Each structure stands twice: as structure tokens, then as C-alpha cells.
Amino acid sequence: MSGGSVGVQGRTEGQYVDLRRIALLESIQNEDQTWAKLAPRWCVVEPEPPWKVCLDATCDCLSAGGALDSLERRHAEDELETMYSAIPNPERQLLTLAHIMLSRGLVSEEELARQISTVRARLEAVQE
What we know:
This is Thiocyanate hydrolase. It comes from Methylorubrum populi (strain ATCC BAA-705 / NCIMB 13946 / BJ001) (Methylobacterium populi). The protein has helices spanning 23-31, 35-38, 52-64, 70-80, 91-103, 109-127, and strands at 8-9, 21-22. The protein is mostly helical. It has one domain. A two-stranded antiparallel sheet has the order 1-2. Helix 4 crosses helix 5 (91-103). The longest helix is centred in the last third of the chain and has 19 residues, at 109-127. The termini are far apart. The model is unreliable at 1-11 (pLDDT under 50).
């Protein structure tokens, strides 16, 4: 992520990932929209969210494609653990992956915000 990126504060370098806080991810974390809280609203009893398989597949694909080695990702997740400690897994894993991808320029904050808006619009349409 470039140094002039909007919404990033407090520059701190980790060994595996840029540890600057990212406003978009902070706001998501603060929404407290965990699977444990959302599943009962949809009368779902599955302990794992349906997107967990996609998250695991994304991590595997990034590793296989050489964009983000699995061991390196795990080290980066460890560095980010305290930043996202208020949120449980697998949501924490999702936020840390987004953080890693943003800090490495694999996706921009604007692209991620657009995708989040698209998904939220679909969910809201289903709720109506």
C-alpha cells in the first residue's frame, strides 16, 4: 500500500506486514458483525460461516500463485493478532488477510470498500 493511502495511521513496520491501522478494517471490526451473532438471526446452526471455505481457498490460491506464501501469511497474522484481538476467528483471520493484502498492494482500500458495499447490498436485498 502506498504511503499516501487514505485512512492509514500510525506507521509501524512488522517483519512480515505493515502494522499501520487501516480505517476501513477498523470500522468493520467495530461493527461487531460476527458469525456467532449473525447466524441466529438467519436461524442457522452451522458453527462455521459459509464464507470460511472461500477464505481458506483464497489463502491457498494466494500461496499457490506465489502472491502470499502460507507460512509468511501465518507470521503476518501473528503480528496482527493484537490489532484484531477483539474479534473472534474466523472473522479475525478474514480481517488479517484483508490487512495483509491491502498492505502489500494486492487490493486497494477503494476496491475492497466497493466489494463490501456490493455484498452488503445483496444481503440487504435478501432481508427485505
